[in-house]
């Protein structure tokens, strides 16, 4: 079979019981192990994972230690290490459905012009979440867009995509075609601002997934959502707090503005840095964050937008 797959787990100080479930789900994949390899990228974990995590159950598995901390650095290393045409990124809290790799192989063969695809990311919460948490499912990389495939190609009207499709793949279970991934790797390696995207340790900077999708679209590839690609996203209790989600929403909102700017997509104007604090204060009165956790998290997202707009390049 063509389109052999490389499964990549990028992890930093993983929660061991979660990672064990991730690996167990990979053991149960219906696609024969002869048709996929497994690479675990140990991204500067405090303990060297090769000494503790057994991958001997897979005939084509190996550990790779990446000392530069950060998700983008780990992914770039993965691009270099992978030997197959299709790359499947599995977070250390993503439990794949048993047919995930088999379905991936079939989809990429049937859709040769798609550079990135993803599917459903359904939650399994460590504790029962409060009802307001549902408003921020996107922040938690949760997704269920129904049972029909969705595909998008950018219109060739200029150098940038005409829009960013709402169903563009997220990092959880992200599938990349190697050719498309190499274009992203070459571009981002020359841009320090884009290298800074992606989580680094406890910092919640994000935007690298959007950056990948936009780069792929600009290169003429399509992106797609396929419901038969399904995984369970393990959500720990600490990720369900008001303060964590506020930090996450603020960082992701700021990064969203910066990613669009890096791709010459500017739906907003740059704002003077001195106006950031007054704008935050005005938004404070508008969002009324003292009234509920949801209002507070939303206000923090607005603050992130202002911070991003103040750092835009000159237009």
Mean pLDDT across all residues, rounded? 91
Residue stretches low in confidence (pLDDT < 50, at least 5 long) are none
Oligomer classification: single chain
How large is the share of residues in beta strands? 15-25%
Could you tell me the number of beta strands?
Answer: 9
Shape: globular
Question: How do the helices and strands follow one another from N- to C-terminus?
Answer: EHEEHEEHEEEHHHEHHH
Query: What's the gyration radius in Å?
Result: 19 Å
Give the structural class: alpha/beta
- How far apart lie the N and C ends? 49 Å
Could you describe the largest sheet, including whether it forms a barrel? 9 strands, mixed
Query: How many individual helices?
Result: 9
Walk me through what this model shows.
Helix 4 (178-188) crosses helix 6 (208-218) and helix 7 (242-262) runs parallel beside helix 9 (293-310). The chain has 9 helices and 9 strands. Helix 1 (16-27) links the parallel strand 1 and strand 2 (36-43). The longest helix has 21 residues, at 242-262. Helices cover 35% and strands 19% of the residues. It starts with a strand and ends in a 5-residue tail after the last helix. With 315 residues, the chain is an alpha/beta fold.
Features:
single chain, 315 residues, alpha/beta, globular
Task: Present the secondary structure layout.
Layout: E1 5-11, H1 16-27, E2 36-43, E3 61-66, H2 71-81, E4 86-89, E5 94-96, H3 100-110, E6 114-125, E7 150-152, E8 175-177, H4 178-188, H5 192-195, H6 208-218, E9 222-235, H7 242-262, H8 276-287, H9 293-310
């Amino acid at each position: 079979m063509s389109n052999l797959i490389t499964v990549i787990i990028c992890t930093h100080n993983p929660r061991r019981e979660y990672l064990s479930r991730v690996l167990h789900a990979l053991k149960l994949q219906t696609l024969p192990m002869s048709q996929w390899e497994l690479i675990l990228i140990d991204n500067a974990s405090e303990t060297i994972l090769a000494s503790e995590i057994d991958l001997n159950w897979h005939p084509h598995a190996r550990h790779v230690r990446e000392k530069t901390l950060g998700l983008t650095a780990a992914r770039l290393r993965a691009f270099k290490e992978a030997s197959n045409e299709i790359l499947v990124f599995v977070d250390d809290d993503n439990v794949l459905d048993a047919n995930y790799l088999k379905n991936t192989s079939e989809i990429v063969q049937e859709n040769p012009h798609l550079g990135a695809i993803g599917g459903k990311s359904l939650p399994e919460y460590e504790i029962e979440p409060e009802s307001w948490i549902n408003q921020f499912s996107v922040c938690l990389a949760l997704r269920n867009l129904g049972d029909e495939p969705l595909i998008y190609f950018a219109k060739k009207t200029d150098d940038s995509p005409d829009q960013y499709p709402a169903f563009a793949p997220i990092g959880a279970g992200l599938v990349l075609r190697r050719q498309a991934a190499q274009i992203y790797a070459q571009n981002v390696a020359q841009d320090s601002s884009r290298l800074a995207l992606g989580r680094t340790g406890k910092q919640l900077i994000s935007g690298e997934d959007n950056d990948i999708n936009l780069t792929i679209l600009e290169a003429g590839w399509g992106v797609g959502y396929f419901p038969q690609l399904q995984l369970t996203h393990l959500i720990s209790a600490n990720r369900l707090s008001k303060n964590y989600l506020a930090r996450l929403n603020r960082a992701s909102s700021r990064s969203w503005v910066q990613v669009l700017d890096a791709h010459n997509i500017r739906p907003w104007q740059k704002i003077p840095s001195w106006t950031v604090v007054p704008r935050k204060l005005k938004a404070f009165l508008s969002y009324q964050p003292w009234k509920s956790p949801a209002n507070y998290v939303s206000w923090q997202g607005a603050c992130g937008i202002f911070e991003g707009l103040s750092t835009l390049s000159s237009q």
